[in-house]
Amino acid sequence: MASGHAWQPAVAALSSMRAAARAASAFQPDPAALKPAALCSARPYYAILLGVNDMKFPRKVRLTRQTQFRDVFAKASVSRDRCFRVLGRSNQLDHSRLGLAVSKRNCRLASDRNRIKRVIRESFRHHQAVLSEKGGLDVVVLPAAASATMCNRELAASLAAHWENLSAKSRHQPEHKSRKDR
Predict the structure, then answer these.
(1) Closest Cα partner for 139 from 170, 177, 174?
(2) pLDDT in tens, 92-151
(3) What is the pLDDT of residues 31-82, one digit of tens each?
(4) At CA 148, angle to CA 57 and CA 31, rounded to 5?
(5) Is residue 137 within 8 Å of residue 173, measured between CB atoms?
(6) Does residue 34 lie in a domain region?
(7) Taking phi first (over 0 means left), then psi (-120 to 50 degrees means alpha), and beta for anything else, what does residue 160 get?
(8) CA-CA distance, 102 to 116, in Å (whole number)?
(9) What whole-number distance in Å separates Cα of residue 77 and Cα of residue 60?
């Protein structure tokens, strides 16, 4: 006979699917952002670009090392509002990469920090085409304290404005030579 706790993995999976659905529901498809016919598929831009067949957030599109974060913090274009401070710097790649710095100081509850990270990742996934128009960007997102109390749609709208702003700034900046990732 199965133990009494056999239902927990199913409940956890259902809870995770509901949270992901709530994060995804904040995004309305933007017909202007879907320029090439290849982008009309359900796969994200980086999945098409890198040949990935799933909807995961692969390591290739994340900032994973301290030196990568340090390069972005050292010299970056800044976009700021009451929800987020977004730092961006062009990279030598053909795709953009995302780094998250969601501190406990600004978002006390782990559930709020996780929700904010889900919304940021989903927004980044939806706006890959905009961010990678002129080449890749390395982006670091720092949420403000007010973002913990805002709804997902407000956060998504704020991030969409930041992506557009950083994309426009990157078009006007000359390419830089970054240190080789260690």
Answers:
(1) 170
(2) 888 889 999 999 998 999 999 999 999 999 999 888 888 887 788 899 999 999 999 999
(3) 454 444 444 445 555 555 555 455 677 888 999 999 999 999 998 889 999 9
(4) 50
(5) no
(6) no
(7) alpha
(8) 8
(9) 22
pTM here is 0.68
CB 147, CB 84: distance < 8 Å: yes
DSSP secondary structure, 27-92, as one string: ----TTT--SGGGGSSS-HHHHHHT--SS---GGGB--SHHHHHHHHHS-EEEE-SSEEEEEEE-S
Residues 6 or more apart in contact with residue 113 via CB below 8 angstroms: 102, 104, 107
Question: Would you mind telling me the total number of residues written for the chain in this entry?
Answer: 182
Q: Nearest Cα to 48, choosing from 124, 129, 120, 167?
A: 129
In a domain, 52, yes or no: no
CA distance 129 to 39: 8
Please check whether residue 35 lies inside any domain of the structure. Answer: no
| Total domain count, the chain | 1
What is the CATH number for 75?
3.30.230.10
